[in-house]
User: What shape does this take?
Amino acid sequence: MSVYAELAEMPGVIAAGEYSYRGDRYNFKGQLEEEMARMASIMCRATTMAVHMQADILAANSGNSQLTPAQGWVVRGPGFTVCVVANVFCFVSNEAGSLNTILAHMRKRLADVEELI
Assistant: This one.
């Protein structure tokens, strides 16, 4: 089973998916319309690129190599949280989901993924 399919079955997960770094392919499972999943994959790819750039800048200016390569990011809104590790995204309900459990699962399953950017 794919990582995103495993995530989609976890309590509190609204939807999960994976995207290509070229931006032309994606897969998802959960409570998203096809167009929303497409836009989510584009947003996640763009944000991942920005996070990598910012981590590189911080590392270069601070001399702290522990910042790179960035392995993912999290954004919390009033209703749900978006988590990304490697090229897998997960939308989690803030009320029903356990962010720690979901992130631990993502990190464990995606630990051996090479830097993709």
In short: The domain at 3-109 is CATH 3.30.450.30 (Beta-Lactamase).
